[in-house]
Automatic annotation (TrEMBL):
GO terms for cellular component: plasma membrane. PANTHER family: CATION EFFLUX SYSTEM (ACRB_ACRD_ACRF FAMILY) (PTHR32063:SF24), PTHR32063. It is found in: Cell membrane. This is Cobalt-zinc-cadmium resistance protein CzcA. The lineage of its organism: Bacteria, Pseudomonadati, Bacteroidota, Cytophagia, Cytophagales.
Length: 1443
């Protein structure tokens, strides 16, 4: 097949060229459509449930909201983890699903459970967070006034512009799921109650709220019709201004109304804030965070956002500007630039190496052109399979791997042109076809190994799967493209561009290779002389590498340098929002003014409008935007810069902060619930115990080297003003808890009494105490409470009001409370650090019963990933080993080539160690790729060693030296292009290179060691194994061993057995039943019967009825009308004759079905019993081979003792080869027979027959006659059909009958009717007579055909009877006489030969006759079966038996 494809490609150059053009167009289109991002989105599949309840403390939030929702959500199918945070007024539950669960299905399942749980909640309404991920915060901006406009816009104005102008217009951008606002003041219409005036007028807070609610609404009154118009009725009662609100009547005291303005100040205010935003230490700003839809393209979404912002900017009020401070496009451009730069440099290096080592620019051009075409094919497949273009998917492509197949083909052509004289008379097309066809399997096999080793990477799941699966898919796509190009494009281009005048001698490539080989040849000679020393040295190096690997430590994935920094800041518990704002401004001032590297500093404090990141007001994320590293002056590395920043910020007391990066911060939080690299989680029930143990553990962990930023989760210490109701007093005054709670909430938190519209904008109308009366605990004590009797008492008469610390936050994982110690790692690998932390905590900070430690964050991901790699890497090794075994058919040679894997691991480990890199998942994937590449050189060497052996080079050392000399250039070229392709990746220092470096370092280091050691160690191993195999082969003649023939017999039986294990063997009866039921030809014949049955209904085919109507001046001037109805038909005898004809034709179709069924049964029986005889021949050959093997063993013993010569051994080997040849033919016959039977049975796969039944077809049921022959029955029915046709033609001489009725009016008078009857006479009868003559002639033809076939079939039946009698007699001879004699001959001959009574030649002559008798017996059975089946088919017995 490959040969035909290559031949087609070379001959049809234009079609291949058009295909290449189409590939370029497809790849270019896919590149423009691919979603582009910096890194793969590794966020797990999660749904966040957010519930806001401003009146609930952390304990109540957990008790009333979080716990009931968690309990309900644990029943959702597919959930793997549930995390939650409960704090004052806010509950955030993160539900993590299996990766296979579709996002919107997960949200639907969660929504259904939330609807069921809402009835059990006492406060709050759960909502789902937007469909976004850790990469969702793609664009962040601030809205600020320009210089000179600062005093014109307040923070409230800026927030209103953000919410009602900017946010609404950005919401329509494709890919944007939501915009979260932060900072400023949320505008409200505030009714600020003066409690003294309220008390003085004997009015309650509740009455004010109810009055506002009842006096702020519009309505409609349908419409009134007035004349031709309808007037619709509308009642307008919505308040529009603070004055209107102040004029609302609270109640009437006598004739005097008490208005809202009498007890309160009405004006513009703002909601209670839980977050803020500051910038560069210059005060507060208003900003927005654009959240991208999960799965959308970051690049295209950001482009849409920027276009929309440019439009929005034009509609902003004068003096305002939208200014982005965090644009993901910057990081994307840096990462893609890194990828493009590495790919371009790698491609150029590979092309240069190819041009240098191939020594011909045309050949180099052909091979190098494969690179961009493979990339375009990969891009097209990425678009089809939805793989995004990012640092990982495109960053691991090694062009050296892609051109391996092309190098093999082109180099083979060059070798043929230079060294083979036969090519001088061939055209370039013929040379290309010969070279490509000869080496295509080797080329594709090498690429197939590379492709297969990437398959286990596809088994990775979780974060590492999302990170590295795109890489494996992209590399796989590129390699598949290279394989397709190797069988189409490369042969065509090589035949077109290469010339016959190629010179190899004296070229630069030739001189380089000769120089390298002059260094290598003495090294190989010495290695073959000191083979044991070389092997021991290799083992020592491997042991040393394993030792180094055990001390390297590990990390999950190297952190991608995003270019910016993020500081997670926490103040002491209970810090006010104002204090946090002041602190962040001081930090911003220090960083902005003290470090010229800093471009911008923005602090996001507390919780944004969409609280997907639920921080308290004493926490902030400080974004430090840095200039390009080339512009840095105070530090050279980011680590050094962080250390200096830490020292500069140390002047601010009471702060806890962690340095990280924006995306990394978001990823860590969303995936593990913690913003740090490592999360030490302590689980338990009591919050006090958790907090105490966490602080003890933190004190111990601070002393460990590598612990950079350490932060204990603040779960306690929140200062509260606690109001504890005195139930006895409540009962005494008749006050309910619900009433007190409403007053307390409305007075201080505020209660919404409606909305006020300003055009499309809407703002809450909120009632709360004036800020003057919301200052300290005394304001709570002096709050007046309404009594049922109309009186009022201070709240402190009904409750105890005091200060008390309370939990600030309650975190839960899978329904268990926990506290987290967040640790960032600096200057050390994660794995060794966590190991030391475990030892310290287990020894120095033991936990009480029911409490436990876990270690999350990057370490948790590392443990999971290493567990999966522990399966993926051995799987890759097993797949490589199996491919090698199937290719070479030898475990020994497969193990020889497999030795390249540990040899390559030496270089990979040493390269990591020398560069100071710990083991990471990126490095692990590099090892998987390395193992596939490393075996290629071994394949090149071993395959050529075997070729030399087949050509007669028996001396092992000579074979090794000649093989390494010829294959030295391909080995060097393969290793050079593969390793050089990764070189830019390994040396790159630009954005994103951190993830690629370990992978590239492993591959390059491994290939260096693998190439050096393969050229030395592999020949040494081969020489040892080949020499030992040769000695073993010499000794093997002393023992009987299975021959090739016997192996084939075993394989044939095993294959039949394995097929039998999967499919039920079929008997001849079942085969016939299945064939009659499924055969398509028989089904088609059966449909003809249905056609005949349908034709019966057309026998009475009466012509259509004619209806004529006329209107006009029929008789005279007045208008009249007439109606005529006319029907004609043939004589009834015509229709009867026609029906008899159709019945006769139906009889022909029915008898034709019998013919088809009989023929099908005959063919099935013949094929079945032929297979049955062939299987018996297999068993016969098996027994024959077994006997000759025993004889050959005896011949070998006699030869060694000197009692005979070598002729016996040679004769035995000849007999065995003859058996092998016969078995091969027999195997082909069986395969063809099974396929033939499958075609008859309409079965997709070859049939497996039952070999336990009799090999003979049985005995005839009745004496054979032709009375039931189905073919003669068809002919008799055809004679009857011609007679019916003649009868029908005779009936056509009769006239047709016509009858009708005419009704008309004459001069407008109706009622005139006429009946008509007539005949249509056939006056011109010549055509009828001619058709009658034709029918009679056809009847004569059918009669003569019937007579002829009767005589022919009678003669054939007689012949079959004689053949059957002869075969029956022959069978009787063999069964009664010949077979017993043959068995006696075999037993006697073997016994006499073993005892030495006869020579081997006499033994062969005796047994040959016996085996011939057995074979002739099987041939007689075959003839018997055929004659019986043919005889029964002629007699029509086939369908009359039990089949």
């Amino acid at each position: 097949m490959l040969h035909k494809i290559i031949q087609f490609s070379i001959r049809q150059k234009l079609m291949v060229g058009l295909g290449v053009v189409a590939l370029i167009a497809w790849g270019t289109y896919a590149l423009r459509q691919l979603p582009i991002d910096a890194i793969p989105d590794i966020t797990n599949n999660q749904v966040q449930v957010i519930t806001q309840a401003p009146s609930l403390a952390a304990q109540e939030t957990e008790q009333f909201i979080t716990f009931p929702l968690e309990t309900t959500l644990r029943n959702v199918p597919g959930v793997t983890e549930i995390r939650s945070i409960s704090r004052f007024g806010l509950s955030v539950i993160t539900v993590v699903f299996e990766e296979s669960t579709p996002t919107f299905l997960a949200r639907q399942l969660v929504t259904e459970q939330l609807k069921a749980a809402e009835q059990t909640l006492t406060a709050g309404s759960p909502q789902l967070a937007p469909v976004t991920t850790g990469l969702g915060e793609i664009y962040q901006y601030v809205i600020r006034p320009k210089e000179g406009f600062e005093s014109r816009y307040s923070a409230t104005d800026l927030r209103t512009v953000q919410d009602w102008l900017v946010k609404r217009q950005l919401a329509g951008v494709p890919g944007v799921v939501d915009i979260s606002s932060l900072g400023g003041y949320l505008k409200e219409y505030e009714v600020s109650i003066n409690p003294e005036r309220l008390h003085g007028m004997n009015t309650t807070l509740t009455e004010v709220v109810d009055a506002l609610t009842a006096n702020n609404a519009n309505t409609g009154g349908s419409y009134i019709e007035k004349g031709p118009e309808a007037f619709f009725i509308r009642g307008e009662g919505m308040v529009k201004t603070p004055d209107e609100i102040g004029q609302i009547v609270v109640k009437n005291v006598g004739p005097t109304p008490i208005l809202v303005r009498d007890v309160a100040q009405v004006g513009l205010g703002h909601a209670v804030r839980y977050g803020a935003m500051t910038r560069n230490g210059r005060g507060e700003v208003v900003g927005g965070i654009v959240l991208m839809l999960k799965g959308a393209s970051s690049e295209k979404t950001i482009e849409g956002i920027k276009e929309r912002i440019a439009e929005v900017q034009k509609s902003l009020p004068p003096g305002l500007v939208i200014e982005p401070f965090l644009d993901r496009k910057v990081l994307i451009d840096k990462a893609i630039h890194t990828v493009a730069k590495n790919l371009l440099e790698g491609g150029l290096i590979v092309m240069s190496v190819l041009l240098l080592l191939l020594g011909n620019w045309r050949a180099g051009l052909v091979v190098a052109s494969v690179i961009p075409l493979c990339m375009l094919f990969a891009l097209g497949m990425m678009h089809v399979f939805g793989v995004s273009a990012n640092l990982m998917s495109l960053g691991a492509i090694d062009f050296g791997l892609l051109v391996d197949g092309a190098v093999i083909i082109v180099e083979s052509m060059i070798f043929s042109i230079v060294h083979t004289k036969a090519t001088r008379s061939q055209s370039m097309d013929e040379i290309a076809l010969d070279s490509a066809s000869r080496l295509m399997r080797s080329a594709l096999f090498g690429q197939l190994i590379i492709l297969i080793v990437y398959v286990p990477i596809l088994s990775l799941t979780g974060i590492e799967g999302k990170m590295f699966r795109p890489m494996a898919l992209t590399v796989g796509f590129a390699i598949v493209g290279a394989m397709l190009l190797c069988v189409t494009y490369v042969p065509m281009m090589a035949a077109t561009l290469l010339r016959k005048d190629i010179r190899e001698e004296g070229t630069l490539a030739d001189r380089i290779m000769k120089a390298l080989y002059r260094v290598y040849a003495p090294l190989l000679t010495g290695a073959l002389r000191w083979r044991k020393t070389i092997l021991v040295t290799s083992v020592v190096l491997l042991i040393g590498a394993v030792g180094i690997f055990s001390t390297m430590g590990g990390e999950f994935i190297p952190n991608l340098d995003e270019g910016d920094m993020a500081i997670s800041l926490t103040l002491k518990p209970g810090s006010s929002l104002r204090q946090t704002i002041e602190t962040t401004q001081r930090m911003e001032t220090i960083l902005k003014n003290g470090f010229p590297e800093v471009k911008d500093v923005i602090s996001k404090i507390g919780t944004a409008e969409i609280p997907t990141d639920p921080m308290p007001i004493e926490a902030a994320d400080v974004m430090v935007l840095l200039k390009e590293p080339g512009e840095w002056t105070s530090a050279e590395t980011k680590e050094e810069l962080i250390q200096k920043m830490e020292r500069a910020l140390s002047v601010l007391p009471g702060l806890t902060y962690e340095f990280t990066q924006p995306i990394q911060l978001r990823f860590n939080e969303l995936m593990t619930g913690v913003k740090s690299d490592i999360a030490v989680k302590i689980y338990g029930e009591d919050l006090g115990v958790l907090f105490a143990k966490a602080n003890q553990a933190a004190a111990k962990l601070k002393t460990i080297q590598g612990v950079a930023d350490l932060k204990v989760e603040q779960i306690s210490g929140l200062p509260q003003m606690l109001v504890s109701y005195n139930r006895a007093r409540l009962a005494q005054y008749g006050v309910s808890v619900a009433g007190l709670n409403r007053i307390l909430k409305a007075a201080f938190a505020g209660e919404t009494a409606g909305v006020v519209f300003e055009g499309e904008k809407r703002f809450d109308l909120v009632v709360r105490l004036d800020s003057t009366y919301r200052q300290d605990i005394d304001n709570i004590r002096q709050l007046y409470v309404d009594l049922p009797n109309g009186q009022q008492v201070p709240l402190d008469q009904l409750a105890t009001i005091r200060y008390e610390n309370a939990p600030m936050q309650i975190s839960r994982d899978n329904a268990r409370r926990r506290i987290t110690i967040g640790i960032n790692v600096r200057g050390r690998d994660v794995e060794s650090l966590v190991g030391e932390m475990k030892r310290v905590l287990d020894k120095d900070v033991p936990l009480p019963a029911g409490y436990s430690y876990t270690y999350g964050g990057q370490f948790e991901n590392l443990v999971k990933a290493k567990g999966r790699l522990a399966v993926a890497v051995p799987l890759a090794l097993v797949m490589i080993a199996l491919l090698l075994f199937f290719t070479f058919g030898s475990f020994g040679q497969a193990l020889l080539i497999f030795s390249a894997i540990p040899l390559s691991a030496i270089g990979g480990i040493l390269a990591l160690w020398l560069r100071g890199m710990p083991f990471s998942i990126s490095a692990g994937v590099g090892f998987i790729a390395l193992f596939g590449i490393a075996v290629l050189n071994g394949i090149v060497l071993i395959s050529y060693f075997n070729q030399l052996e087949d050509e007669g080079v028996t001396d092992v050392l000579e074979r090794v030296k000649e093989g390494t000399a010829v294959r030295f250039r391909p080995v060097i070229m393969t290793a050079a292009v593969a390793s050089m392709g990764f070189l830019p990746m390994a040396l790159s220092n630009s954005a994103g290179a951190e993830v690629q470096k370990p992978l590239a370092t492993v591959v390059i280091g491994g290939l260096v060691s693998a190439t050096l050691l393969t050229l030395v160690v592999l020949p040494v191993l081969y020489s040892l194994v080949a020499s030992r195999s040769k000695r073993t082969e010499q000794l093997a003649h002393e023992q009987p061993r299975p021959t090739v023939a016997h192996s084939i017999i075993g394989l044939l039986i095993l294959s039949l057995g394995s097929l039998t294990a999967h499919a039920q063997p079929i008997t001849v009866e079942r085969a016939i039943e299945q064939g009659l039921r499924q055969n398509g030809g028989l089904q088609a014949t059966a449909l003809e019967v249905k056609v005949g049955q349908s034709l019966q209904k057309t026998a009475w085919d009466i012509p259509r009825t004619t209806v004529d109507y006329q209107r006009g001046q029929i008789q005279s001037f007045p208008t009249d009308h007439s109606l005529t109805v006319m029907q004609s038909m043939a004589m009834p005898s015509v229709y009867s004759a026609q029906k008899r004809l159709y019945q006769a034709q139906l009889g022909v179709a029915e008898r034709q079905v019998v013919v088809s069924r009989t023929e099908l049964v005959r063919q099935i029986r013949l094929a079945f019993y032929q297979l049955r005889v062939d299987y018996e021949r297999v068993h016969l050959l098996q027994a024959q081979d077994s006997l000759y093997r025993r004889a050959a063993h005896a011949a070998a013993v006699r030869y060694r003792t000197g009692t005979t010569n070598q002729l016996e051994s040679v004769t035995a080997e000849t007999r065995q080869r003859d058996i092998l040849n016969r078995l091969a033919r027999l195997q082909t016959d069986i395969s063809v027979g099974r396929q033939t039977l499958a075609i008859l049975l309409q079965q997709g796969e070859p049939v497996i027959i039952d070999t336990t039944g009799s090999v003979k077809a049985g005995l005839p049921v009745l004496p054979p006659t032709l009375e039931a022959n189905p073919y003669l029955a068809v002919l008799r029915q055809q004679v009857e059909t011609t007679r019916r046709q003649a009868d029908l033609e005779k009936q056509r001489f009769w006239p047709d009958i016509r009858a009708g009725y005419l009704s008309q009016s004459i001069e407008k008078r109706g009622g005139f009717g006429v009946y008509q009857v007539g005949l249509s006479l056939p006056l011109f009868t010549a055509p009828i007579r001619a058709r009658l003559d034709v029918a009679r002639l056809r009847g004569q033809i059918a009669d003569r055909q019937l007579n002829y076939q009767q005589h022919r079939l009678q003669g054939e039946l007689s012949i079959r009877e004689q053949q059957y009698a002869q075969s029956l007699s022959t069978l009787a001879y063999y069964e009664n006489s010949a077979l017993p004699q043959a068995n006696l001959i075999l037993r006697t001959a073997e016994r006499s030969y073993v005892s030495g009574d006869i020579e081997y030649l006499e033994f062969v002559q005796s047994t040959t006759q016996a085996w011939l008798i057995r074979e002739q017996y099987l041939e007689a059975i075959a003839q018997y079966n055929q004659s019986l089946i043919e005889q029964e088919a002629l007699a029509g017995f086939a369908l009359g038996t039990s089949y």
